[in-house]
Automatic annotation (TrEMBL):
Provenance organism: Companilactobacillus kimchiensis
Pfam families: Hydrolase_4
Protein name: Carboxylesterase
Alphabetized SUPFAM superfamilies for the sequence: alpha/beta-Hydrolases (SSF53474)
Site location (Important for substrate specificity): I143
InterPro entries the record matches: AB_hydrolase_fold, AB_hydrolase_sf, Esterase_lipase, Hydrolase_4
GO MF, any single term: carboxylic ester hydrolase activity
Serine aminopeptidase S33 domain span: 16-221
Catalytic residue list: S95, D196, H223
Amino acid sequence: MKILTPKPFYFDSGSKAVLLLHSFSGTSNDMRLLGRFLERNNYSAYAPMFAGHGTSEPLDVLENGSPAKWWQQTVSAVEFLKEQHKDKIYVFGLSLGAIFATKALEELPEVVAGGVLGSPLYVHNFTGIRSAFMTYAKKVYSIQQDLTDAEIDSKMRLVSSKIDSMLIEISKTSVGVTENLVEIKRPYFIGQGTSDKLVNPKAAQSVAKDVKTSQLHLYNAGHVLTINKAHEQVQSNVLNFLENN
C-alpha cells in the first residue's frame, strides 16, 4: 500500500488570501477541501505544514514540533502572503490551528479577520485530543509493513511517554491566547460541531461571549468540520463571512 505524503499547498487565485492552519493529529490535507473551495471562489488559500507533521513517524510531532515553532510558522506564513502582495489576509485554524489563528488575530495587524473550527480554547481537559493522537499514531504504525507488533508496541509506549508534556505546553499556550480574547476587535468566526468528542462543544459559547465581534455557527457534526458531513455548510458560511469582511 503506497502512502501519499501530505504536502503544504498554496492556491494562488486572487488578491485576497486565507491562511489555513491544521490540527494536532492532522496535516494540511485536512484543509485541502476548504482550500479548493476558496480557490474556486477567487480567494488564494495557503496551508503550511506545522513542524513535525506530515511524516510517517508520529513521534516527529512530539520531538520536532512545539507551540513556539508553530506560532513562528504562523507569523512566517502571514509574511509570505504579504510578499505575494495580497491586499487582504484572513486566517482560519482547525483545533490546534485555532489557537494560532486566534493568536494571529490578537497580535498581527495584517490579519483583517478570521476564525476557528473545533477550537480548544477554554477547554481544560485534553484527554480527547490525547486519545485522538494515540489512535492516529497506532493507525500510522499499523500500515507500515516493516514493523512487527512488538516494535509497534514499543513505539506506542514512547509516544505515550512523550505526549503529555507536549499537551501541557499546548495548554499553556491556549490559556495565554484565551486571556487575550477580549482584545480581539476584528471579525471572528467560530464553527463548532455539537457532537465533537475531542473538545467540549460548550467551550465555543464561552469564547463567543468574550469576543464581541464573533459569529458562532453550530453544526450537527463532530470535530473535523473541514472534511466531515458539515463541510459544505462550513464552506458556505466561511465564504459568506469572507465576503462580508
